[in-house]
Amino acid sequence: MDKDLEAIGVHCQYTYCNQLDFLPFRCESCKHTFCLDHRTETSHKCARAGEWAAMRRKATERNMNSSLLNGKPTPATGTQCSHPQCKTYINTLSAVGVACPTCNRQYCLKHRLREEHACATLVPLGARPASLVNIQKQKALGALDTFRALIASKKKGADRAPLEGRKAPTTSSSTVGSLADIRRSAKGDARIPADKRLYLRVEAEAATTTAKLPAGNFFYNREWSVGRVLDEAAKGLQVQNVNNRGGGEEKKLRVYHVQGGRLLEFGEKVGVGLLSGNTIVLLRGVGPAVPDLMAV
């Protein structure tokens, strides 16, 4: 019976144990077999302690070096230098990558300098092309110059009126009269409370926007955003509005505040920057409300 058990199990090879174990453990360092209590290198005082761990660590490093250094890096382990004529893979153990803060690209050590990769001729990654900015700037300035010329001509006509025998109104009285005219003929949603109504003169500049009704007086809720007022104004003047269909800036409508002298952001609240009696103009294709484009 004992011989049958010994044939199934193995005795622990630790000197002071020799226990029969049916599920023995093999030490990968010294290649001996031990019981559960003496399975670790420390418990059986392994003469070659740490050898298996060192061999495994060296094998891992060797595999890593062969894949990164000797072999060609993959997109997962490296990135190719941004220079069009360079095939060097960077961000590996053998080649470090250098980021250029001007053009926002990464290069190898050979092409890291601005002169080496012609940085002055590159458009920075993530930036809007200068040509597009210049085109939008010219469109914005051209449309605004046209509208300002129209306003100037209207003012000259108003200034000639006193010469024909009529008394020139003061600034305050003319403003009050203009606001009264807007209030009298303004159209809008009757559900808007009277204390929250903002009365505006809305015009569609003929050079950029085709409208069935060139101008009109309307009232809106002071809490509304500029985008919502634009939608309502376009509907009131029967102007085609494709802002919600996507596409480029050449077809989008923008709101120009005459008294403020700037394009309004879609997210602004009209009650913050506008007053009753002000005039807004619908312009198409003048680009976003970038502050430096509005400077004249």
| Average pLDDT over all residues | 77
Name the structural class. Answer: alpha+beta
Helical fraction: 25-40%
Largest sheet: 5 strands, mixed
Q: How much of the sequence is in beta strands?
A: 15-25%
- Multimer state: single chain
Query: Which stretches are low in confidence, meaning pLDDT under 50 for 5 or more residues running?
Result: 161-174, 291-296
Q: Could you give the order of strands across the largest sheet?
A: 10-9-13-11-12
Total strands: 13
Helix tally equals 7
Distance between the termini: 107 Å
Rg on CA atoms, Å: 40 Å
**What is the N-to-C succession of helices and strands?**
HEEEEHEEEEHHEEHEEHEH
Shape: elongated
Quick summary:
The protein is an alpha+beta fold and 296 residues long. It has 7 helices and 13 strands. The protein has helices at residues 2-8, 51-70, 130-160, 171-185, 226-237, 270-273, 291-294; strands at 10-11, 20-21, 25-26, 33-34, 79-80, 89-90, 98-100, 105-107, 197-204, 215-221, 253-257, 262-263, 279-284.
List the helices and strands and how they pair.
Blueprint: H1 2-8, E1 10-11, E2 20-21, E3 25-26, E4 33-34, H2 51-70, E5 79-80, E6 89-90, E7 98-100, E8 105-107, H3 130-160, H4 171-185, E9 197-204, E10 215-221, H5 226-237, E11 253-257, E12 262-263, H6 270-273, E13 279-284, H7 291-294
Can you offer a commentary on this structure?
With 296 residues, the chain is of the alpha+beta class. 31% of the residues lie in helices and 16% in strands. It contains seven helices and 13 strands. Strands 10-9-13-11-12 form a five-stranded mixed β-sheet, sandwiched between helices. Strands 1-2 form a two-stranded antiparallel sheet. Strands 3-4 form a two-stranded antiparallel ribbon. The longest helix is centred in the middle third of the chain and has 31 residues. The protein is elongated.
